[in-house]
Amino acid sequence: MSVSQQVIKDKLQASIGDIYHIIITDTSNGCGQSFDVIVVSDTFEGKNKLQRCRLVNGALKEEVAQIHAFGCKCFTTAEWSKLVV
């Protein structure tokens, strides 16, 4: 299975509850080897950055193993609303 933005989105939605927003950017010019992901979910409430990223990385364990680079940023809905005013 090749890694695509849709595969990443589907896996995140299935694994992390209460997702408000997901932004997936293929940073490898379309070859599917490098992705940056922003996940907004209140599941992250009370968790630090490391704990949040571990949730995302755990959900995408198989996909992350197949690609060259992966970055994620995780926000609660309250944090996200402050960023996108």
> Which ranges are low-confidence, i.e. pLDDT below 50, for 5 or more consecutive residues?
none
Reported by name, the CATH topology is: GMP Synthetase, Chain A, domain 3
Total separate domains: 1
Rg estimate, integer Å = 12 Å
Averaged pLDDT, please?
A: 93
What's the β-strand tally? Answer: 3
Biggest sheet: strands side by side, in what order?
1-2-3
CATH class placement: Alpha Beta
Largest sheet: 3 strands, mixed
Beta-strand proportion: 25-35%
Whole-Å distance between the termini?
38 Å
- CATH architecture name: 2-Layer Sandwich
Order of helices and strands: HEEHHEH
Q: Helical proportion?
A: 40-55%
Number of helices: 4
Shape: globular
CATH superfamily: BolA-like
Structural class of the helix and strand makeup? alpha+beta
Protein name: KLTH0G01540p
GO molecular function, one term: 2 iron, 2 sulfur cluster binding
Family: Belongs to the BolA/IbaG family.
GO cellular component, one term: cytosol
Can you describe this structure?
With 85 residues, the protein is α+β, with helices and mostly antiparallel strands. It has a single domain (5-83), classed as GMP Synthetase, Chain A, domain 3. It has helices spanning 5-15, 49-59, 61-66, 77-83, and strands at residues 19-26, 34-41, 69-75. Strand 1 and strand 2 (34-41) form a beta hairpin. The protein is globular and about 35 Å long.
Map the helices and strands.
Elements: H1 5-15, E1 19-26, E2 34-41, H2 49-59, H3 61-66, E3 69-75, H4 77-83
Parallel strand pairs: 2-3
Antiparallel strand pairs: 1-2
Spell out the key features of this protein.
85 residues; GMP Synthetase, Chain A, domain 3; 4 helices; BolA; BolA-like_sf; alpha+beta
